[in-house]
Design a protein that fits this description.
The chain is of the alpha+beta class. 52% of the residues lie in helices and 14% in strands. The protein is elongated. 32% of the residues are buried.
Length: 259
Amino acid sequence: MKGSYPMSDSTLARELALLVERLHQAPDSGQTAAEVVDYARQQLGADHAGITLIKGGGQLQTVVPTDPIVEELDRLQNQLGEGPCHDSAYEGETFVSQDLAADSRWPLWAPRAVSLGIGSALGAALVDKTGERRLGSLNLFWQQPRVFSSDELAFAHLLTRHAALALVASLTVEGLNLALDGRKRIGQAQGILMERHGLDEDQAFAVLKRYSQDHNIKLRELAEQLVQDRQLPRNGSVSRRHNGSIDRDESAGAEPVAL
């Protein structure tokens, strides 16, 4: 199937319909991304491919790379602050270089990419249907310089629109599942504190929240550990106060209270 593009409009529509079906049937966001990368690489005959996602704090993360060179190319772009995939992810546009050796837009990254055996590159932005939320970039690399036709660039744009919709749906479901699981664990942790220390629901949650903030532990992770170990982490302990709340025991050498 590699290099099967270009194709007729009817064939393209049929292929994309099948791809969209597979994307929405994928069990998780990782498999969704892998399907996109594999399809794009085969259709456009790329030698290497991957996806860059914008994570919390604006950090970029490489996912489902076809081989280690993709991770290295992305690492260099992040380190140097330039490159087609870096710029595509942050600016929400498509960047293409037909000959990196002669491309002056990325004076630091392009020579490094060429030294790694890369001749041309394409970074196609992944944005949601509103065009306002930038998810990242679909990244394709070729070992030789390559002329991209307008049809190929249009295909890349169409593909990333479908891919972005599928990724948003998958990531949303995973986020909801994680949130629901986190709420369940927090509720269980509250129940343990309520039973063992005679607290009401609000007081138990206040204990968890305070301990989370004081020890820089995510609330969900704190609850998970409390449910699993039946005690708060050993870097602090709890004590009963006159108002019924529980807080750290600040005395030197205090042992954690087993629950």
